[in-house]
Each structure stands twice: as C-alpha cells, then as structure tokens.
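$ fold --in a.seq
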Amino acid sequence: MQRNWEELAKEIILRAVEDYRKARRKLSIYPNLKRALATVQETEQFFESWWFAQLTDLDGEWLLSQLKEETVH
C-alpha cells in the first residue's frame, strides 16, 4: 500500500512540473495569457506548500528555482 501512495505522490509532482513548464512556454509567447499566469502562480504556491512537503523529501524552493532557471535559458 505504501508503494501506491509513493507513486501517486510522484505523479502529482511530475504533473505539476509539466503544467508549470507548459504554462511558462505559453507565457513566453503570450505574456498576458491569464490561464497560464494562473497556472504558474498555482504551481509556485504548490511547490512552496505544506502539502508538497508531505508528498516528498524534495526541497520545493530548490525545485522551483531549477524550473525558473530552465526558462531563462
């Protein structure tokens, strides 16, 4: 049963990363796209949240900084 929860947590985080990247790509083309702006804000809050910390041992602030670094290059 523990393995199932770990897999679910992993998939939730991977989906958030994918959503964040996709939204940032959209914003690079359409800087005022409201849905993409909202997705970026929501996922940033998630990476810094208590819930994220419960799902993984990853440092959410570190992950977010890495994702932001991707969009700079």
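$ fold --in b.seq
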Amino acid sequence: MAWSRDKIHRGKAKKLFVFSVKLVGYIVWKLSCLFPRSKNKWLFGDVMGFAGNTKYVLIDFLKHNEKYHYHLIWITHNKQLLPQIRQFGIEAYYWLEPKAIWHCLTAGCYIVTSNTKDINCYLSGNAFYYNFWHGIGLKAVGKQSAEYLKVPERKRNNFYYKVLFFYWAHRLPDICLTTSEFMLRNIFMKQFGQPEESFILGMYPRAEFMLRPKEDILNFAEKYCLDSECHFIRRLYRWKKVYIYMPTWRDNGKNIMVEAGLNFDMLHKSLLKNNSVLLLKFHSKTRIKVDEICKYDNIYLIDNNWDIYPILPFTDCLITDYSSIYSEYMLMNKEVIIFEYDKTTMNEDRGLPPYFEEKTPGIRISTFSQLLNLIDSNKDCHLNEKDLQNVLETYWSARNIKIDFYNDIRKHLFGKFD
C-alpha cells in the first residue's frame, strides 16, 4: 500500500514538473507577443534537420528574392549542421544562440514543416505562421490524437491543458498546406479545429522534387546535400534492386529491429541472391544497434543528417508501416510492402484512422519470415492501376495545382502582391 502511495505521489510530482516547465514556456510566448515584428524577415526551419518541405521552399525562395530582398533565415536545432547549411550560401543560426533568439522575436513570418517548434515555439508570438506540414495523416495527431481526446471535452480549453498542449493544439497555423480534398475534410480541419479558409490545396514541394528527372535530382544534391550523400546515391546504380525500410516513430521508443524480429544474416543472404540492397531509415530517436548493421555490404543505415528525398527516386521498393511516406512514394508508382508487425499496439497508442487499410492498398505482412519470402522471391510489389489511382485521388487530388508560395506568403503578409 505504501509503495502504491509513493507511486501516485511520484506521478503527481512528475505532472507538476512538466506543467511548470511548459508554463514557463507559455509565459515566454505571451511576452514574445509584445515584440514588434518585421514582415520583411522570414524564418524557416525543420526540427528534423536541413530537410522537409521548408528546405525546398527556402531554396526556391532564394531564387525569387532578388527583387524584394526579404531577409530569409534558416533556424536549426542541430548545431552540427550549421557549417553545412552556411556552405550552401544560406544564412543560418542555431536556435539557442543570441542572434537566433533575436530573429525569432522579431521575424514577421514563421515557415515550418510541422509546427512552430521547428523554429522556436516560445518566441513565435504574433508572427504569421505558414505550415507546409510533414506528412499525409495516416496517424491521428493534434486534436484527433489519443493524448488530446482522452481529456474530457469540457476541460480541453482550460488553462492547465491549454498550457500542456499549447504548441501543437493551440498555437495553430494561419495557413496550412494540404494535398487533397479528402485530407482537408477528413484530417486537417479536424486535427487543427480550423475552418477551410485556413488551408491551401496544392503539392508538397518535397514531393514535387522527387518527380523531377534523375539528372536534375543529382544536380540539386550536388548543390544542397553533403558530398557523402551524393556519392552514396551514385553507388546505388550498382544494385539490381534497392529496398528501403522506413518505419514510423513508435511512442514507446522500443528497438524497432528487435520488435520487428529482423535477422540481418538472413536478410543479407536473401539480398545477395538477387543482387539487391536494403537501406534503413529510422527516426532520429529510434534506438538501434549500429554494430549489427555495419558488417554487411548490402545493408546500409542512412545517416539521419542526410535528406532522404534525393535518395528515394533511386530506390525501387518501399517497406513501411503507418508512415505517410507511403503516399509520397506512390507518386513515383514504385513497389511497396506494408510491414505492420505491431498494428494493434500502434492503433492503441496513436489511433489509426478507420479507413487505414482501405486507403493504403498493397501487400501486407506481419512477420519477418513473410518479409524475407518477398525479398527472397524478388516479388513484384507494385499496386495495380485501380489501387494506384485511388491512392493518388485520396492523397494527391491537388497535385496538379501550381502555387506560387513566395507570392502567396507576400499576399497574406502585405495584403497584395504584383
């Protein structure tokens, strides 16, 4: 009984600590609303690195900026990436250094891939917030997430929960990009709790990039990616078939390789049989044992500092689960294997939408032995034409809408543009 009481006290103390930390952040955000902001200063960021939709937007904007000379700045959360980003001719700062803090307090526009946390959610008060988003919505997030919905509706907007959920449920974008009518009405309007006017329909910049000719992609990589990544892409030509495994992040933080039952000795032999290679791209927080992978010459762990989008067009088959990379990969009409070894757990933790299976057609497996059989037999895992067109209509019905994002932001900031 005493042990149970201690556990309850520890739980309450932890909640109080978390709330106190977030309360400080919320107060800082309130104070940041007092700073005058320049509409000519635009900040870009992605907490995952120099990648995502915002990377491609910034590079495009630099080409358009000769006339108006807006102050375009990348804010990074990884100090080690600063030399790389600056090497590309981009003004960049680490988010906690004094210059970055000043720019975060005075910039008139935050341009992000996920939410203002990509730059600095605590200093974003009254900045115009343009969200290019980071996926297609195969998992519940925001106001549709299990974490938010488990709170009684009458309490969700009280001060305590407003502070706890502030940066992803209450600091909402002024404009958010989405890629189809289905996603707009079934996902985005619900997860943000915002009207249709807060969204713009169009193509993700990073997805548009993947569809360019391969030579153009290589030329881009040579300008805006690390030399090691460019060299790696060219090496992929030596293999007859390139698989890439990109599982989504698990909230439990468990070792995915162990949980999925991956046996790298067996994978190595099957891949070797068909002159194939397997690339592994895990979330940066995923726990892995690198030593288990490095000894194989046909299994590669992708560096988390690399931008995956210049690599994807040079692969042949995606192995994934509940990740929105599924829908982006289907734009290229390539093979896909859906490896859902923990579907029940994922559904409990994150809440998969009821249409998940219907809207993600493909070969579905739940065990490593099934995955090994597909690789060993070199099975063609393309979608049939009907399923492919359904996927494109579901997730990408706005793919042919061309948007001048540079001038769209100018329109929202200044009310008009020429």
